[in-house]
UniProtKB/TrEMBL annotation:
The chain crosses the membrane at residues 6-25. Keywords: Heme, Iron, Membrane, Metal-binding, Monooxygenase, Oxidoreductase, Transmembrane, Transmembrane helix. Coiled coil: none annotated. This is Cytochrome P450. Its cofactor is heme. It comes from the Eukaryota. Pfam families: p450 (PF00067). One of its GO terms (molecular function) is iron ion binding.
Amino acid sequence: MNISSTILLILLSYLAYLLIYRLFLHPLAKVPGRKLAASTSWHEFYYDCVKGNGGQHAFKIQEMHKRYGPVVRINPREVHIDGRVDPAFWDILYSNSNKLDKDSFYYDGFGAGYSAVSTGPADLHRARRGAMANYFSMTNIRRYEPMVLQQISKLFQRLKTCKANDEVVDLGNAYRCLATDVVTSFALPEPKTMLDYPDFGKDFNRLIRDFAKLITFQRHLKIVFPLLSAIPDWLTVRMDSTGASLQMVDFQRSYEKQTQLAIDRKGKLPEGQPISILDTLATSTELKDRDKLRNRIVEEARNTVGAGTETTASTLSVLTYHLLSNPACLVKLKSELNDTAVASSNQLLDFRTLERLPYLNAVISEALRLTNPVTGRLPRINPRAPTSYTTPSGITYTFPPGTVMSMSMPDLHFNSSIFPDPHAFKPERWLEGTWEQKARMQQFFVPFGKGSRACLGMESARMELLLTAGNLFRRFEMELFETTARDVSWAHDFFAPFAPFDSAGLRVTML
Ligand code: HEM
C-alpha cells in the first residue's frame, strides 16, 4: 500500500470512528434529533451559510423541534430547548444565579473574542462587563438625552426636506443612520454622522447586512475576518465600485484611531465633551492591564456600536410598518401623544414625558416582541458540573460538563400560550387582560435577554425608541410606499433578523 492510500485509510477510519462515537457512544447520543446534525457540524454550516442565501439554521431548529420534541441535538455538542413548548426553562438557563460560560464556537463568529458580549468564561466576562456597567446605568444614560434629541432633530430635518421635494424616504436605512449616530455619540470620542449621507447610506447599510452574513461563515471557518482584513485598499476599491467597502474599512480603522486617542488623553477631555465608553475603558481602574490593551478596547467599542445599531433600527422599522398598516393603532397613539401637554408643538417631547405614556410603551413592547432584535440562539455552557433538562412530559436528560445548551428569543415571543395570535400586532395585549395574563407576558418577554449576560444598553435603547417613536408619530404623517410585511419579515438569522435579500426595506412618503 502506498503512502497516500495509507493516509486515506487512516482518515476514513478516523471519520468512521467519529461517526460511530457521535451517534452511539457520545453522552448526547440519546437526545432526539436528526442523525446528520448529530454526526457533523457541517449540517449547521449548510443551513447557516449555504441554503437559501444563509441564515436558515434557526428555522431548521424550529422544524426539528416540531418533529423531535422540546429538546433536540442540533449539532454534535449542543442541545436546544424549545421555548414554544417549555418557556419556563429560559429562567433557569439564563438566571442570574446560573453564571454559565458562553459558547466560544458560536460567539467567535463576531471575530471579537475580547469584547464582553463574546467573552466565553463567566469570570472574565464579569470584569469586562463591570467596567461598563456604571456607564450604562439609567442615571448616566439620561445625561445623553440631549444628544439623542439632537440626532432625532437632524432626522426630522431630513424628513421635512424629503417632504418638500416629494421624495420617497428610505426610512429603514434612515433608522440605521440614526441608530449609528446615536450609539457612536456616546461610545466614541468622535461620533459618526451617517444622517448626513444623502441616500441614508444605502450602499453602506447593504454592506453591513452582507457583513452580518459573514458572521456565520466566520463562526465555522475562523479565517474569514482575518482574510478580509488582509485585503489591500486598492483591491477593496476595485471590488466595490460604490465605495461602500472602503467606507466600511475607514469606519473600522477609525475605531483604532479613536481608541488610541482615548488612551493618549487619559480622561483629559476637551471642555464640555462628554466622556465616551472608549474613554471609560481606557481609564478604568477596575480592568486589569491586559484588558486595557488597545486591541481589546477596539473590539469592545466595535461590538458595542454593532450591538446598538441593527437592534434599535430593526425595531423602529417593524414598529413603523405595523403602525402605518394598522390605522386604528396609529389613531390611538397620535391621540395619546397629542394630549400630552408641552409648551410648544415645535418642542420635542422628552423622555420623562414619554416614558409615562401607556399606549406608546405598549406599542414599543409589541414592536420588540415582533422584531426579536436578536434572533440568534444564545448558547451557554457549564464547564464545571453536569446539567440536566426535564421535558414537560417528565423525561429527564443529564448532560456532562461542557455540553452546550441554548434557547432562542423568538420561540418565547411567538409562543401562542403566552401571546395569543402571536404574529399579530396588538399593542392592546399589554394593557388589557387580567393581572395574571400581563404578569405571564412580562415574565416571558425577553428582548434584552436575562441574567448576567443581559443587554447592557437596555436603558439607552429604551430611551432612543421612546424619543424617536414618540416624537416622530406626533409630528409627521406618512404612508407606506411599496412596502409589505415581507419587507420587515425575518427571513435570515445572522444573530439579528434580516428581511429577504431582494427587499428594498421600509419606505414611506411624507404627507
Ligand atoms: C432594541 C435594542 C436592543 C436589544 C433588543 C438588545 C438585545 C441584547 C441581547 C439579547 C443581548 C444579549 C446577547 C447574548 O446573550 O449573547 C445584548 C447584549 C448587549 N447589548 Fe444590547 N440590545 C439592544 C440595544 C443595545 C444598545 C443600544 C446597546 C449599546 C448602546 C447595546 C449594548 C449591548 C452590550 C454591550 C451587550 C453585551 C452585554 C454583556 O455581554 O454583558 N444593546 N443586547
